[in-house]
Write a structure and sequence with these properties.
Elements (H helix, E strand, L loop, with lengths): L5 H6 L6 H8 L8 H29 L3 H34 L1 H13 L6
């Protein structure tokens, strides 16, 4: 057996025990203040909750059907296309206004200087 990294050595080929690592290494024994200890306790509890939510998320991702994956890819393609079109339209507008600034300024001047019955 070839060992590739230290996590593999610690877990001996099994999935790493994230909960055990957090439980046994989370406490700071240098904490002497009551409020700091309470903050640390809250932090450790939140870290356990985050680990639990990550595990649930991984299970939901693994349980996705091919139709759900296709739906996600379609959403991604539509979003990427829409963003690309908007970026190109914005860049085109900037280029158009830059090259036609004289015409735009002159037309605005003509409209603002026109008699009231022309507007």
């Amino acid at each position: 057996m070839i060992i590739k990294n230290t996590a593999e050595v610690k877990s001996l080929g099994q999935t790493p025990q994230r909960y055990a690592k957090l439980a046994f290494t989370a406490w700071d024994w240098g904490v002497t203040d009551v409020s700091a200890a309470q903050d640390l306790k809250t932090t450790v509890a939140q870290n356990f909750e985050v680990l639990k939510l990550e595990d649930e998320m991984d299970e939901r991702i693994k349980a996705r059907s091919q139709a759900e994956w296709n739906k996600l890819y379609a959403k991604r393609a539509v979003g990427l296309s829409a963003n690309s079109i908007l970026l190109l339209a914005g860049a085109g507008t900037i280029v158009f206004v830059t090259f036609n600034a004289q015409v735009v300024v002159y037309s605005v001047y003509l409209v603002s200087a026109a008699p009231e019955d022309w507007k």
